[in-house]
Amino acid sequence: MPNNMQFSRIIATGSALPEKVVTNHDLEEILDTSDTWIRERTGICERRVAPADQTTCDLAEEACRQVFERSGVDPKSVDLLIVGTTTPDLVFPSTACLLQHRLGMEECGAFDVNAACSGFIYALSVADQFIRSGAVRRALVVGAETLTRMIDWNDRGTAVLFGDGAGVVLLEASDEAGVLSTHIHANGGHANLLCADVGVSRGFKNEPGGGLKVLMSGNEVFRVAVRTLGRIVDETLAANSMDKSEIDWLIPHQANLRIIQATAKKLDMPMERVIVTVHKHGNTSSASVPLALDEAVSSNRVKRGENLLLEAFGGGFTWGAALIRY
Ligand code: ACO
Prior knowledge:
By secondary structure, the chain is α/β, with parallel strands linked by helices. It has 2 domains: 170 residues, Peroxisomal Thiolase, Chain A, domain 1 (3-Layer(aba) Sandwich); 146 residues, Peroxisomal Thiolase, Chain A, domain 1 (3-Layer(aba) Sandwich). The chain is 32% helix and 24% strand. It has a 5-stranded mixed β-sheet with strand order 1-7-6-4-5, with helices on both faces. A 4-stranded mixed β-sheet has the order 8-13-12-11, sandwiched between helices. It is globular. It starts with 6 loop residues before the first strand and ends with a strand. Bound molecules: acetyl coenzyme *A. Acetyl coenzyme *A binds next to helix 2, helix 6, helix 7 and strand 12.
């Protein structure tokens, strides 16, 4: 019988990054751009780029092994595996299936979620519903990307923004408060403002790589992102009858420091209470929120019992938030 009183709690976090660091100065060598422009407009100083033989699944595996090592949990005891990714290793099997096998997990449900930069929040939301309903006891939730694989390195409007990485949380059913609520939304009406407009069914273009690249109207995306993240923050606080002063940490999607600052302002939060990694990771899409969370936990900034607000916005458009008692 489902136990509806259960919460899902984060029992461990983990992350992985490629070794190679690409600085803004490195990009100055190949693009008509400058370190000053990139830092002033985005907050990004450097990003990690995976070599050709390191895939999304490789990064996810490293992050998950860290979680199992830190928690002492046996991978075989996990009942559900969800990977948020827009850059899967293969069309199929899913990255989650490849990962499940590598980690030696039992035959638990395993699938990918594609919600662009909101992929981790979406995956967390799905896993939380499974645990709350009593259907599963432990769930591994991953955000992993190699987005630099689909960057046009001649396009200064996008090439300077993205990086690769993976982050993960292990959730467990608990009577104690953990994930308080999750909120996910989408609006496909402006799909053309942020997309990669080729694919299996529509076909590929007669261009290098089949024309697979990120296309973005940055300025328009920026405006919608700021407005939409403001709304999701209000929705999340209202759903929990919580005042913004009760949030201890904002852990936002790391696309642009100016977008992060706008959300912090909306919450009246000083930047010291905001976890920022965009300067060294760039935008790692689905991986960005769990990477930032792992950094916050590993550096002992986030403490047990504190309230965390996680949020993300990305292609689709998709957006979402999670309020968590850590
Ligand atoms: N270096 C130098 N100049 C540049 C660069 C660059 N890398 N890129 C653009 N410029 C130029 C433009 O050509 C333009 O020049 P012009 O005025 O002569 O035409 C000028 O800089 C201003 O361009 P804007 O696009 O208006 O710059 P903006 O201040 O909006 O910053 C940016 C661009 C950083 C992309 C910003 O709009 C942004 O962060 N947008 C949101 C991104 C985002 O949140 N995406 C969602 C998640 S991603 C996902 O889901 C996969």
